[in-house]
User: Fold these one by one.
Assistant:
Number 1:
Amino acid sequence: MKRSQTEQRKNPKRLCKRATLKPTEMGMFNNFPEEITQHIFSDYCMPLSSLASLCMTSKAMCDYIRNLAIDSQLVIRPINEWIVTKSCAKIKIRFIEIGMLLRTASSYLNTSEKLKVIESFFYELGETEPDYQGTYHRICEDISLKFAYDCIGLLINRFIINWDDKALKRTFELINRLSRLKERMDKVLLLNEPGSKEAHERDVRQFIQEVFLKKAISPDQRSLWLSLLFEMYPTQHARLLYLLYGPLQTSGGKYNGMIDWTILTQCGNYGHIPCPYSYFKELADIMVLIQSSRLFYWNEHTMTRFFNELTNTPEPWCLENNAKLMFFLGHNWTVIILQAKLKADRIAEFSHMAYHLAQVSSQNSPEAEGSPESLSWFVKVMFEAIQILPAPSRRSHVISEVFKAWRENIQALSEEFDDPLEDDQEDTREDLRVAVINLASITHLLMEMILVNKDSSSCYSSTAFIPRVRHEE
């Protein structure tokens, strides 16, 4: 006797069992037309997070969703929406989500198959144009090239999270080939002089920064990208780093993306145009990262040689700009560079560099400008640097040359201030005031160290007042 409908409703397990379709790799979606399935899987009906959960069900589902994620329905349509809504943030979030979805849908693939996913993504965006730019015409017709590179970098770097160095190297080689990066870099580093191809330089800088360096998830990954770039140009390291992190030109008070190759060769006033301190912070940070990375093996000789090459790119920098870069490089770098000048017997250059370092130290100290405390970093650096000279007489000579250079700079500033034809007398007067105050502060520090320190007899030479190394317990 058949059960009544009321009895069937009381037994939900039986109803569920009878309603279950025959299991397949795509489940019930096999019963739908392709157009309906694509519409269901589009974000009109289903968010990307749900698609990522579906990837856990079967290999066939992973393959289907991965191909759908690469397809223009998920990648190109958001760009068209941005053109209408001008919502950059939404587009960036979308590319991040697509990258994470691709990563989930490709979890069972080997490295070679995962690289094919990246290659398919690049081809979906559109092949590079024959011009110098790697213009991906599917997303760059109505938006800026920099923003397009930003989106590409967000997607790729979410896709390659937790890859080992070997896989990352293969990824770099693939992107290098697909984007013709080597060809574009050759034009700006080997075939033309700095600044002669400004648009090419801007394109290369933006691509490398947005796709690789800025999107790196760790300092180690950023070091790896830099090491691979350095391997491509073994004799152009300094110029390459300037290309990637050097100062940019300004137009109407805003950066226009073009690299300024001459600004650091110009001398100005401390804290004023043409070279504000912001020009040097990023350069210094990346140099410290490279020096500390296990991929570069930089020793003291390499650090000094690189610093000299960089500060002569493309022409010798002004000494005050050298001092600004050294200050942001930190204590160890500065001591090594100064000691290299003493080893080479370049006393005059060392002395004038010391003068500029003192001005930079005073202006960037958290203590009050011109106070003795604001020059404590400079004093420590100088005392450690001259320890490389074993003879007290040599140390005394170096210190004398430093104060001689200080006197020459003050005299030059005084003459410049007295010149009625000078246009920037206010800035000159400020530099003169700071130089005199800093000289008085240095004298205060030295006198305090000599007269007040109880252990002065064991810490300083009685003839030259030059400190010896003191080891703290």
Number 2:
Amino acid sequence: LMSVVTVQLGQAGNQVGLSFFNALCSVPASHHSRFFRPVSVRGAPPVARAVLVDMEPKVIANTLHAAQAGGRWTYPKDRQYCQKRGAGNNWANGYTSCREACAKALEMVRAEVEMCDDFCGFLVLMSVAGGTGSGLGTRVTEALRDAFPKSFIVNQIVWPYSTGEVIVQNFNAILSLAHLYRASDGIIVLLNDELHKVCATMLKLKTVTFRHINEVVGRDLASTLCSAEKLCDQSDLKDMQLCGSSSFGDIVAHLCSHPDYKLLKMRSVPQMPESYRAYTKYQWPGILKTIRQMLVTDGPCEEGLNWRVDLTRRSLPGSAQASQADGSTQVNRCIASLLLLRGKGLEDADLSTFRVPELYAPWSAPTTAVWCSPHPFHGHEKSASLLVNGQSIARPLEAVVSKAWDMFSAKAYIHQYAQHGVGEDEFVSSFAQVEQVVKSYQRI
């Protein structure tokens, strides 16, 4: 398999990376080998192809310790970099003042890439609310694009809570996304509001922390990015006409082929606490019905889905027939989608409901790529994951743009960014870039 180097940036990126590699180890080694170095000593734990960067040492130290204590895999010993102070939740500080960190990160990445026999691209894990993940993460992504112009770059970004984590999070998110859109091939956007709902509603956590959220992100990423077999176009699982193993580049090629549409959302089924697994049975018809309705309505959870939304009849705004909890009344039209099925009895899975034109933009090919594996994932006998490039992403982006404009108009905190060389022109340019992205998705 073509190798992928993972770059973990900031607190969120390193916590997500830890969960990601833990989850990868729940499947056979042949399905996750693209993310690990070849095992040179029989019985030794695999070593992740990963580079860890943060501005403070505590998170990296905890991440390394947790991986070592788990015993199933480990991080490389010479692929970490940290400084003594953070970026102060300031995108400009992380972007302009951490040149040494960026240079060191690029040096470590080059060394890791040189160890790959067949290198494909990068998975960059980061948040966009604070300063290190957003600012330094953006700078490192741009440096990777300059140094490896022909390699795939997929960014996974954690989008901030709508109620606010950091006072300047909307500025940080806008500046990050505008720059990433020019450098990245695909951007997996995970909303903290949705992840919080999954943790509280489905995982039954009374107190949801960022660690819980990042663990969910890592598991969902692993279920999506583990190797699987590609089902031939329009083939049925009963026939099992397969077209070879999936690659990291296949995700970009299928989902992000148009340069104006690079944003992806993830969905997964089942969602439950570990203690429930022994007493819960899932069958493919129920799993596919649920995840298909998640696709149609953009629902993040199995619970609370609106089953009244009709694909063949788009309702008018305000209609009770299609109203959703977030106020949306539209079917989540897509550019492309990728369905991954893992577990036994795949021949019982009916894919016909994913191949209807009403799910897709009029100008796109009405097809859902399907990848499958007979191996269970993360303790679930059967599971499904979905990557979607669809119009629903426009809503959270538009909300952040609106709040950021209000702060910018009031000149709030602008001086903190100007101190690090990011002036008003940079803000205006970033606003224009993200607003264009929003309009493109709204037109689907």
Number 3:
Amino acid sequence: MAEEAGLTVDSDGFTNEMEAQKQRSRDARAKAKGGGTKRLEFIAEQTAWLAENGVKATDDSSKYAWDVETAASIKAVFGTDGFLEEGSSVGSGETVGIVLDKSSFYAEAGGQEADLGTLVIQSED
């Protein structure tokens, strides 16, 4: 369309500025939420990484049941620098996000607050 109007588009410049704006938005949101720890959130880049690495969407069908225990497996771990490779570790006190195959937690969406709960890690023994 731009070409038809005799205009050119700086696609690289647009992409760079869009990424800079996304980062400013993330930084402003994190500052507004406060808390002192870096806020982790899944956005398009993270969901794309999950899809590219064969991680299926979490089955959250049990979120409508009250006070349930849902057995689940960890499919990915996300840290402040991205997804961790198998065998990687994070430092004590670091914040991580865990992607599960199943969850009874209700995710934050449409202005609603997310569920709070406890994850209990059990060994395979």
